[in-house]
Amino acid sequence: MIQDPNTYKLLTPGPLTASLTVREEMLVDRCTWDSDYKEMTQEIRAGLLELAHVSAKDYTAVLMQGSGTFGVESVLSSVPGADDTVLVLVNGAYTERMCLMLERHKIACERLDFPWDRIPDAETVAVYLKAHPEVTIVSMVHNETTTGLLNDIASVAKVVKAAGKTFIVDAMSSFGAVDIDVGALGIDFIISSANKCIQGVPGFSFIIARRSALEASRGHARTLSLDLYDQWKTMEKDGGKWRYTSPTHVVAAFHRAMQELKAEGGIAARGARYARCNKKMRDGMKALGFEAYISEEHQGPIITTFFYPQNAKFTFASMYDYLKSHGYVIYPGKLTERDTFRLGNIGEIYEEDVDRVLELFAQYLKEVENA
């Protein structure tokens, strides 16, 4: 058994295991009105544009209190106008959640469903848009953490922009590890979170928005606290000031995390580390008899979903407890048709961690078999 319950590592898609130096930034209390703190916010905003390969002339970054879901809801409740219709490309729990948000805000919404182990087909989207001229906005998820599927946003972006539609992408579990040229793809709004691939801690989300599209959303917001346009105008006018109380400790941690991303070698280096760990994990689990839900062709580098093994003595609870007692925490599944669990490999997870986790799985299976 591990002696300290706070020493385990998270094999989850966020929150994740942050570096000690990122966590240490939260030991300092900061004032939201302080010029140093506002400058930190501005540096984060500028850095996010750099990661997205866009200029401040055409795009801007808006930070929003709350988890990634808050950021997605901010966009979906602030951008569509009264005459807009949003098409959601559904192939996982997080696009299902987009539909729930739009329904809750009584925004016209249509859905185009795909199997949860398949990526949305761009040609199917093109045909749908041609047959449904009422659709003005298309929304999808990039890396679907329900399953680990990495959707092809480039092919979809091509048909969406050719049709003259606004394009919204939830890149919660990909931005910072999968390189996305936001401007070249024509993405109008892309959303991610502090506690994902940039390796900060939970507490705020961020939106990189095309300035013209954000300007056009003025007055559309259905909520006060999630009003994306007003949040942006306050940050612009007051040089990094948030409208309402911001998560100061989280912001400082994220500021440090962005520096550490750069020191690691940027998106390319971090994405390569994640990919190496993911492949080693997937191959090792296959050797132990665990079947992955997603084909290798469409497997993203962030998280992998595995089916339960064909072992009558196996239980997720016992496996979870065994791994945690040896220093690692895993994630339950989100599928409904078959029992699954998920293994994430983002954050401070390295190949030696994967080797250790595979060793623990082998030991657990042996103990279960002999019980």
Keywords:
371 residues, alpha/beta, 7-stranded mixed sheet, 3-stranded antiparallel sheet, 13 helices
> Rg, please?
21 Å
Mean pLDDT: 94
Task: Note the quaternary state here.
Answer: single chain
The percentage of residues in β strands lies in: 15-25%
Q: What is the count of helical runs?
A: 13
SSE succession: EHHEHEHEHEEEHEHEEHHHHEHEEEH
Q: How many beta-strand runs?
A: 14
Major β-sheet profile: 7 strands, mixed
> Span from first to last CA?
19 Å
Could you list the spans in which at least 5 consecutive residues all have pLDDT below 50?
none
Summarize the amount of helix as a percent range: 40-55%
Shape: globular
How would you describe this structure to a colleague?
The chain has 371 residues and is an alpha/beta fold. It has 13 helices and 14 strands. It has helices at 20-24, 35-51, 68-78, 93-104, 122-131, 153-162, 182-185, 211-216, 228-237, 248-264, 266-287, 316-325, 351-370; strands spanning 9-10, 59-65, 86-90, 109-113, 137-141, 143-144, 149-150, 166-170, 189-193, 204-210, 303-307, 328-329, 331-332, 340-344. The strands form 4 sheets. It has a 7-stranded mixed β-sheet with strand order 2-10-9-8-5-3-4, sandwiched between helices. A 3-stranded antiparallel β-sheet has the order 11-14-13, covered by helices on one side. A two-stranded parallel sheet has the order 1-12. Helix 7 (182-185) links the parallel strand 8 (166-170) and strand 9 (189-193). Helix 2 (35-51) crosses helix 10. The model has no long low-confidence stretch (mean pLDDT 94).
